[in-house]
């Protein structure tokens, strides 16, 4: 099994050393946890799911990069996983930049130590792939860490858009029709449509207000409950099939944790809608659920044109959309992905992106199994005080 950020469904096709590296993942992280707690003072009191963070995804990406026939040149190729790691360290822990760099250095040393002990002989290209991946990972993590601590926040203003005008127009039309009708049965049917459109608008307004609150430095107020995330996935799959047909695939098993059910469902709906809008028409959209080291990985994958590197961060910012979306006829108001980030970070986690022409595009909600671990975790808009 692989937890790589591109939903690799055929890890057996990777090179022998890549597969061996995947097999040794548990041993690497067990040793790394011991070493990092011993050497990095800021890590000693951090719970394991938070300390491990997005590193399993990064590790498996590195393993993929060892395989010469696989379309990944490094562990950070086409993915924001290292940047998200740096962002989480800034928001949730007492780390400084030195501690962040040191844990990556320990990570590198542990990988090489375990591979050496297990008699995994690396050639020059494989050694270079690991080193360059970690070097790039350090750079991206530190940049994201610095971005959070610089007090980065977007200035934004609310705007009425097509997405809101659609259900509003439908409601007005239904109410006008009701005024002309005398048939109680017909009136009830039309009223139900008006109520549905109004509920849709209410949901959109709530999403907007939550996202604005998040970007002003506050967390979304979560209503945590214990539930199986697969129940939510199946609901979203069924609802999506009604609107877009039978193109949704689910790769999931029972994973039960403490999260905000409504918020995660809305976040997943946004990711699925995004995949339909910007994925290649007629290709599958895959929802995948994994549990790794006390964390939930909830991802949505679509085929199609990748998101360019210089646009990968702006899509998570309020009212900012990728240039390909702006230049197309696809409607959207730039709230969906910022809302997903708000939900993920309010749960003490993050939203990652993996995108390339060969691998398609995958968004990964990566959060602790227990959303109450860090009820006061700062968000991207308001870093932890030191």
What is the strand and helix layout of this fold?
Layout: H1 16-23, H2 25-39, H3 48-52, H4 55-65, H5 81-92, H6 97-117, H7 124-149, H8 162-180, H9 184-215, E1 224-228, H10 229-244, E2 248-251, E3 256-260, H11 261-278, E4 285-292, E5 295-302, H12 323-327, H13 336-346, E6 350-356, E7 360-368
Parallel strand pairs: 2-4
Antiparallel strand pairs: 1-3, 4-5, 5-7, 6-7
Helix pairs in contact: 1-4, 2-6, 4-7, 5-7, 6-7, 8-9, 9-13, 10-11, 11-13
Folded structure, characterized:
This protein is α+β, with helices and mostly antiparallel strands and 386 residues long. The protein has helices spanning 16-23, 25-39, 48-52, 55-65, 81-92, 97-117, 124-149, 162-180, 184-215, 229-244, 261-278, 323-327, 336-346; strands at residues 224-228, 248-251, 256-260, 285-292, 295-302, 350-356, 360-368. The chain has a 5-stranded mixed beta sheet with strand order 2-4-5-7-6. Strands 1-3 form a two-stranded antiparallel ribbon. A hairpin with a 2-residue loop joins strand 4 (285-292) and strand 5. The longest helix is centred in the middle third of the chain and has 32 residues, at 184-215. The radius of gyration is 22 Å and the shape is elongated.
């Amino acid at each position: 099994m692989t937890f790589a950020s591109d939903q690799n469904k055929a890890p057996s096709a990777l090179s022998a050393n890549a597969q061996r590296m995947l097999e040794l993942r548990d041993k690497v992280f067990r040793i790394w946890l011991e070493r990092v707690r011993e050497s990095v003072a800021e890590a000693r009191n951090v719970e394991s799911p938070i300390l491990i963070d997005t590193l399993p995804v990064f590790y498996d990406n590195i393993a993929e990069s060892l395989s010469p026939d696989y379309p990944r040149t490094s562990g950070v190729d086409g993915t924001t996983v290292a940047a998200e790691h740096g962002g989480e360290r800034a928001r949730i822990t007492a780390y400084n930049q030195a501690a962040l760099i040191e844990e990556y250095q320990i990570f590198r040393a542990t990988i090489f130590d375990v591979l050496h002990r297990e008699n995994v002989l690396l050639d020059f290209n494989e050694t270079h792939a690991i080193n360059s991946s970690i070097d790039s990972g350090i750079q991206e993590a530190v940049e994201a860490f610095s971005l959070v601590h610089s007090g980065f926040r977007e200035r934004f203003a609310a705007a009425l858009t097509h997405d809101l005008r659609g259900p509003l127009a439908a409601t007005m039309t239904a109410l006008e029709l009701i005024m002309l009708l005398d048939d109680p049965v017909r009136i009830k049917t039309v009223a139900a449509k008006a109520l549905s459109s109004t509920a849709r608008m209410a949901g959109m307004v709530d999403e907007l207000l939550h996202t604005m609150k998040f970007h002003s430095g506050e967390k979304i107020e979560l209503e945590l409950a214990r539930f199986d995330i697969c129940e939510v996935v199946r609901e979203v799959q069924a609802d999506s099939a009604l609107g877009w047909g039978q193109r949704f695939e689910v790769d999931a098993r029972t994973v039960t944790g403490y999260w905000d059910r409504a918020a995660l469902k809305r976040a997943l709906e946004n990711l699925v809608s995004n995949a339909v809008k910007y994925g290649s028409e007629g290709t599958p959209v895959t929802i995948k659920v994994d549990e790794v080291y006390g964390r939930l990985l909830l991802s949505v994958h679509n085929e199609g044109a990748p998101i360019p590197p210089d646009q990968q961060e702006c899509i998570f910012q309020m009212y900012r959309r990728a240039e390909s979306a702006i230049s197309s006829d696809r409607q959207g108001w730039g709230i969906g992905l910022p809302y997903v980030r708000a939900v993920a970070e309010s749960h003490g986690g993050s939203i990652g992106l993996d995108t390339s022409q060969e691998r398609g595009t995958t968004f990964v909600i990566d959060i602790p199994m227990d959303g109450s671990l860090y009820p006061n975790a700062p968000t991207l808009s308001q870093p932890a005080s030191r």
